[in-house]
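Handout, page 2. Input:
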Amino acid sequence: MKKSTALQNTLEPWRIVTFLVVLLVIIGIYIARLFVLQVIEYPEWLAQALENRKQNINIAAPRGIIYDRNGFVLARNVPSYNIVVTSANLPDDLGEIQAVYRELSLITGVPVNLNEITTEDPFVPCQSEHGIAQIVTYGETTAPFEPVRIACDVSRDVAMIVQENQEKWPGAGVEVQPIRDYPTGGLTASIIGFLGPIPASEEDYYKDLGFVINRDKVGYAGVELYFQDQLAGKNGLRVVEEDVAGKIMRDLEAPELPTPGQNIRLTIDTRLQQAAETILLDEIKGWNDWYGEIKLTSGVVIAINPKTGEILAMVNFPTYENNRMARFIPAYYYQQLIADERNPLLNLAVGAELPAGSVFKLVTSVGALNESVVTPEQIIETPGKFVVANKYYANDPGLAREFVDWIYRTHPGGFGQLDFIHAVANSSNVYFYKVGGGYQDEVNPGLGICRLGTYARAMGYGHLTDGYAGLPSGYVTPEVELWDKADGLIPDPTWKRINQGESWSTGDTYIMSVGQGYALATPLQVLLSVATVANNGKLMAPTILREVLDGEGNIVQPFTPRERWDLKTDPVIQVFEDNTIRGCQPTGEWKTVQPWVFDKVREGMRLAVLEGTLAKVFADFGLAKAGQVAGKTGTAEYCDKFADAKGL
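Output:
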């Protein structure tokens, strides 16, 4: 019987052997790979598997509270209620789900269906406009066990309704989120500031500190910005195990609790702040009503304790409402503030640089007496106006320039003759022109620009170079704890040649002696010069920080007044070789101010209240009549955009 050819093996034996060898090699490779994965690399893959089910949950730290000096709250955290839905906890029945959506829509006002979520119209919690169904579907596809917000910042009543009906509306819940609240609003906004999202340029910095981008907020202005590190605290950490759907199974480690931010007590007195604001607004309104048009558009009031440097009130107008920035910064409102030429976002008290006006005459007064330019009893001719040759160099014949006293319009003859005390009391321009710049043989030489500059810096004006007059390296002035503070400008001949392209003139010295011209100062610097005189030559570091407290109210940083220097004992007045308009050449020597100088200046300031430029203001004020009030008036002439538009 013949065998069927179909059953015969037609393959060569070597082919079968080759196939078996290849098959065994492939199987060997798989076995080897499995051995590597399951035996050799087992610890590494086990660690990765554990890591995949391990999730770090960042726990936000409560931000510190800001108080005024009397314990009145200026910034705090208040609960904001968000309505959320967790898709994994919704009923299985589609009809029941729709019933939950309808109930939530009725109490929140959010439509059940509205706008599909796309890349062109993405879902942004609390901001984008989408329906409940669309938001929940988005949450279900991304993280079904994570609650998604369908309505934000709802009333407490709405939140309580949802809370009470959680069994009836499975999946629905309430998320309590702390937001910043500023009880005094615009009254203290320029001091307190506001919060905002972490800027993209600083994300890496804040990530390293444990902050969560798009959740945590940081200070954008004022105290909120300056004391960001103290107020923010430290976020906590919870390490949990999650399943593939994102449901938390258990804690893998003991939770690390967040450290609350420290509380800040300021030197501000809210009652005084409110009174100062009322006075300022009434004053601005009164002058605008008197003019019959709006001429005054901004103003500042600062009150300081000259013995400690504590700022008791700091009012700015215009201001802004920082409560509008509590949840997020509205773009339209922020753009309005940016577009306002009065710059309401700037703390004008420390950041506006303007001519100091006649208050600067206190600097000229201290310098003139201490340098023996004049004596307190010396009589100076003070006509309504006089003419001086405006010289740019020593042998320059100069062009005639007229200098006018402020009283000239009503009394062309001026004050006639004045001694030092009455010159301060009446704020005579002509007197201080002559004392500051010199005049023929009557006052020869005058104080001069170089000495005028060093006395100005000693009394709180201008920028101080590092290590100036023995200050520690890195010492920053003014010391007040606000980032938008400015330096002002105390010019000299070198500055003018570089920035204006011409030499200093005698006229420049004259007008700077009365607080005009190129010299610029912030309102705080002007106040510091007055406070230095009031405090008998001691310049105290201005501060708005009273104390730092922990969460239990314990003082962790008590208040200690800081003295920048005492002009009577600390040599902070530079001595110059040359006191002409050519330039300032310091000898390297420094000296102090004689104590009697401040006595005489204060005497002139008290007389200003009794019979000088402040007599009408304090006419019915008993303490003034008793000699317990002193002051100095000042009116600065400058042209801003508003004055220029009116041709003033």
